[in-house]
Design brief:
Radius of gyration: 39 Å
Strand content: 5-15%
Largest sheet: 8 strands, antiparallel
Number of strands: 11
Order of helices and strands: HHHHHHHHHEEEEEEEEEEE
Shape: elongated
Helix content: 55-70%
Number of helices: 9
Number of domains: 2
C-alpha cells in the first residue's frame, strides 16, 4: 500500500509538468504567418540583389581586361621611336586607360553598394528570426510561471487514461529537447548576425577606399589630358617643334649642373657667410607653398612625360597665383622661361644645395639678389597652354632640390608632409 501510494505521489509530482505540454505545443508549433511573409519578401530581395551583383562583377572584369590591353599598348609605344605622333598616341592611350580606371572605380563602388544591400537584407532576416524566437521563449516563460498554481490532481484526472498521462510525459521530454534546440538556434543566429554586421563594417571601409580611389583616378585623368594639351601648345602640333623641344630639354638637363657650379664658385664668399645651420645639415628646408597634395613624386613612374625625361622633383597642388616662398636663404641664380619648367627660378644655397621652382605666372625677385628664408619669390601658375606654364599637368608648383647640381629627392630635405585637403573638391 505504501509502495503504491509513493508511486502515486511520484505520478502526481510529475503531473505538475503536464500543463506545460499543451502550452509548449501551442507556443512552439503555431505557424507565424507574419514572420514567414517577411522572410519570403527578404528572400526575394536577396535573389534580385545577387542577380544585379553578378552583372556588376562581370562588368568590373570586362573593364579590367580593357585596362590590361591598354597597358600593353602603352608599353609597346614607349619602346618605339620618339616622335610627336607617337608621343600624342601614347598620351591618348594613357588617357583612355585612366578613363577605364575611373569606370572601374565606379563599378566597384556599385558592387560594394549592392553587397551592402544584400548584407542588410540578410541581417534583417536574421533579426526577424531572432525576434520571433525571443517572443516564443517569452511566452513560454510566462505560461510556465502560470502553471505553477495548477493543481496536479486536476491534470491527472483530466487525462482519459493512465497511458495517455504517460504519453504526455514523454511528449514533455520531447518538447523540452525542442526548447533546448530553439535556444541553440537563437545562439547560432546571434553569432551569424554579429559576423554579418562585422562584414558590413568592412564593406563600408572598402566603400570609402573605393571612393578615395575614384577621386585619385579623376585627378590622374585630368593630369593626363592637361599633359596632352601642354605638349600640343609647346610644339604647335608640328614635328620640327617637337624635335626642338626634346633637344632643349636634353641641353637644359646637361647644362644646369655646370651652370650651378659656376654660380656657386662666384658666390662662394657670400654663401659661406649665410645660413651656416643649413650648410651643416641642421635645418630642414621650408615648404615653398602649403602642402595641399603632392600630385607627382620624384622620378614618379606615372609621370605623363616620363618617356621624355624623368620627373626631377615633386609637384605640389596649388591654385594659380599662390605665393611661393624661398625654401632657404640664398641667392637667385636666374629667372628663366623654358619649355620644360615654363617660368622658373633657381636659388643657390650653402652646402652645395640649389632649389628650383617651376611653372610660375610671375616673378617677384631678380637674378643676383639675396633672399631670406620664407621671402615670396613669385606666384604659381601651371595652367596648360598658358604663357609660362611649360609642360604642365595642371595648376601646381614644381619644386626640386639639387645637390652638387644633380636633382635629388626633395622629401629628404623637407619636414613631413601633412596634406590639408582632398584631391578633388
Amino acid at each position: 500500500m505504501t509502495k503504491g501510494f509513493m508511486s502515486q505521489t511520484k505520478i502526481f509530482k510529475t503531473g505538475a509538468f503536464l500543463i506545460v505540454c499543451s502550452l509548449l505545443s501551442q507556443v512552439l508549433f503555431i505557424p507565424n504567418t507574419k514572420a514567414a511573409s517577411q522572410a519570403k519578401t527578404l528572400s526575394d530581395e536577396t535573389t534580385e540583389l545577387n542577380r544585379d551583383l553578378s552583372g556588376k562583377r562581370s562588368r568590373v572584369k570586362e573593364i579590367q581586361g580593357l585596362i590590361n590591353s591598354y597597358q600593353d599598348k602603352i608599353k609597346s609605344q614607349e619602346s618605339q621611336q620618339l616622335s610627336l605622333s607617337n608621343q600624342i598616341l601614347l598620351l591618348d592611350n594613357r588617357i583612355r586607360e585612366k578613363e577605364l580606371r575611373l569606370d572601374e572605380a565606379k563599378a566597384q563602388i556599385e558592387v560594394i553598394d549592392l553587397e551592402l544591400q544584400a548584407l542588410d537584407a540578410d541581417i534583417g532576416r536574421q533579426e526577424t528570426k531572432i525576434n520571433v524566437q525571443k517572443e516564443i521563449l517569452s511566452d513560454l516563460v510566462r505560461k510556465l510561471r502560470q502553471s505553477d498554481d495548477v493543481n496536479t490532481l486536476q491534470i491527472f484526472l483530466s487525462r482519459p487514461s493512465l497511458s495517455s498521462y504517460f504519453d504526455r510525459i514523454e511528449e514533455l521530454k520531447s518538447l523540452q529537447g525542442d526548447l533546448g534546440q530553439t535556444l541553440e538556434r537563437i545562439k547560432n543566429q546571434k553569432t551569424q548576425l554579429e559576423s554579418d554586421k562585422q562584414d558590413r563594417e568592412n564593406k563600408l571601409k572598402d566603400l570609402e577606399a573605393q571612393k578615395k580611389q575614384l577621386r585619385q583616378d579623376a585627378l590622374k585623368l585630368e593630369m593626363e589630358k592637361n599633359s596632352k594639351q601642354s605638349l600640343l601648345a609647346e610644339t604647335k602640333d608640328k614635328q620640327e617643334e617637337f624635335n626642338r623641344l626634346v633637344s632643349e630639354l636634353r641641353q637644359q638637363s646637361e647644362a644646369t649642373a655646370d651652370e650651378i657650379a659656376n654660380i656657386e664658385r662666384d658666390l662662394k664668399d657670400k654663401l659661406e657667410a649665410i645660413d651656416v645651420a643649413l650648410a651643416n645639415g641642421q635645418t630642414l628646408l621650408l615648404w615653398p607653398v602649403p602642402v595641399r597634395k603632392i600630385t607627382t613624386t620624384f622620378h614618379d613612374p606615372t609621370y605623363p612625360f616620363r618617356n621624355l625625361f624623368e620627373h626631377p622633383g615633386v609637384d605640389l597642388r596649388a591654385n594659380v597665383g599662390t605665393p611661393i616662398k624661398a625654401a632657404a636663404g640664398g641667392y637667385v641664380a636666374w629667372t628663366k622661361l623654358g619649355s620644360m619648367y615654363g617660368n622658373y627660378i633657381m636659388l643657390i644655397h650653402p652646402g652645395n644645395l640649389a632649389t628650383v621652382y617651376g611653372h610660375m605666372t610671375k616673378f617677384n625677385v631678380k637674378a643676383g639678389t639675396y633672399v631670406e628664408r620664407g621671402d615670396v619669390i613669385g606666384f604659381t601658375g601651371g595652367m596648360p597652354g598658358q604663357p609660362g606654364a611649360g609642360l604642365s599637368t595642371g595648376p601646381h608648383l614644381h619644386f626640386e632640390v639639387r645637390q652638387d647640381g644633380i636633382p635629388v629627392d626633395p622629401m629628404g630635405f623637407l619636414p613631413e608632409a601633412i596634406e590639408t585637403d582632398e584631391l578633388i573638391q
